[in-house]
Amino acid sequence: METEDRNLDSGQLLELLELYMDLVEKQDVAIYHMSNVIRRQEEELQHVRNLYRLEVQDLPGLADDRREAGEALKDYERARGNE
């Protein structure tokens, strides 16, 4: 009896799974919209650089961060089955 009390019944497990799937879906939406915001900010920065003829000087490590972000996004899309 004690073992049964510690184990989740199928209803509780299904409820947890639904909660997890809902959170993942909301996370996907947030990531999508934040990516759009970041992309637009990058475009605006590029317009300002072009307008004032500024040379692009990446911050130290920015290229590595961009590469790692791209790899992480590819891994994420692969895991979600979007590739």
Description:
This protein is mainly alpha-helical and 83 residues long. The chain has one domain (7-80). It is built from three helices and no strands. It has helices at 2-6, 10-51, 62-80. The radius of gyration is 21 Å and the shape is elongated. The model has no long low-confidence stretch (mean pLDDT 85).
Report Rg: 21 Å
The topology string of helices and strands comes to: HHH
Largest sheet: none
Rounded mean pLDDT is 85
Helix count, DSSP H or I runs of 4 or more residues: 3
So what's the overall shape? Answer: elongated
Q: What are the segments in which pLDDT stays under 50 over at least 5 consecutive residues?
A: none
Topology, number of strands: 0
Specify the structural class. mainly alpha
Q: What level of helicity do the residues show?
A: over 70%
